[in-house]
Amino acid sequence: MNFPDGFLWGASTAPHQIEGNNVNSDFWANEGRMPGMEFSGDAVDSYHRFEEDMRLMAEAGLTSYRFGIEWARIEPRPGHFSNAELSHYRRMIDTAWSLGLTPVVTLHHFTNPRWFADEGGWLADGAVDRFQAFVEAATPILEGVPWIATMNEPNMLAMMTGMARLAGDPEAQQQWQSPTMDTEQAQAVRLRLPAPDPEIGQRFIDAHHAVRDLLRERTGARVGWTVANRAYQALPGGEAKMAELSHVWEDLYLEAARGDDFIGVQSYSTIRVNADGPEEHVPAPDDTLVGTPYRPEALGIAARHAWEVTQGVPILVTENGIATADDDQRIAYTEGALRALADAIGDGVDVRGYLHWTLLDNFEWGHWAPTFGLIHADRETFERTPKPSLGWLGQVARRNGLA
User: Fold this and answer.
1) What is the pTM of this model?
2) Is residue 103 part of a domain?
3) Averaged in consecutive runs of 10 residues, what is the pLDDT profile of the chain (403 residues)?
4) How many domains does the chain have?
5) Which residue among 11, 30, 209, 390 has the highest number of C-beta atoms inside a 10 angstrom radius?
6) Pairing mode of beta strands 375-377, 384-386
7) For position 368, which CATH number holds?
8) Is 3 part of any domain?
């Protein structure tokens, strides 16, 4: 199974989850306030160790790295942009190129400056203007970057923003969970999460469209955003309910990408839908550490759906992986996902690359237990230990295909 010439092979990260001490962000301010939520702290210190992390990728055979730039660091106060932080992220871009890694840069990955949250966050009247000002300040360091994602998973961000409205409700606080939960009832809670409010979703669509052409003109990059793909599967009689859920949770954001240069597909498992809604998953021995069923075929389903709804926007798989302590399971899952992706490509879906989630075991939005990484990072010494899955994926990249 060979992949197209020029196919990107790599891994993805998010700044708050790996850099450490993102003290000016709203997420840092809220850590520990909800039941069971842990602290990010130093994370895995990738802010200082990014060259080592990139070098491990390149030496394994990978060819691309998706990473984010942190708004809260770049604009610690309204209208004040840190030249030092902008230079830091430019060094990351240059380092990636020097190691033979194509940079894929995300401008917003869930976190905001604390002052932005204090102004009302994304629900404030001037939110889109604030985001546009940040992007304008960042564009000089993005020159030559070939792939830029404006936002990570706006559909999940819309859901999280809606839940923030309930922050003063004690009952709602008890039901808070991060996007990657690790409780025994994780799957059941996930299915009860409130659907993203389309009005909030429209705010993110407006922000994305406000900066899309600006980025194209000033950087020459391909510009898009990434969506959390649900990979719905309709059970008998569930077709209408699946279409309803798909529009609110996913298709609104895929439709907004029709004028983009690419769509970032992010897939982990499937959700089966009957006439009443999502079917609650019966726990199985091969479930992931976040309670989701082991279904590598989800990536093929997600790619086909994104291709159809966007009406042919090229796809970059910007996240796909599994929370597991068993690296053999990680390899098996990834191979299954890539076979499903290859089948979709064979059927005419235009896919440009595969970026695994994630490079390093990291801070999974309130929890340290779920391990998604190709590399283990010791939280005390920060020593990096590549797992066999990193070498395996590197060999796939060198062959540009599966054996």
Assistant:
1) 0.95
2) yes
3) 96 98 96 88 98 98 98 98 98 98 99 96 96 98 98 96 68 48 48 83 98 97 98 98 98 98 98 96 96 97 98 99 98 98 98 99 96 98 98 98 94
4) 1
5) 11
6) antiparallel
7) 3.20.20.80
8) no
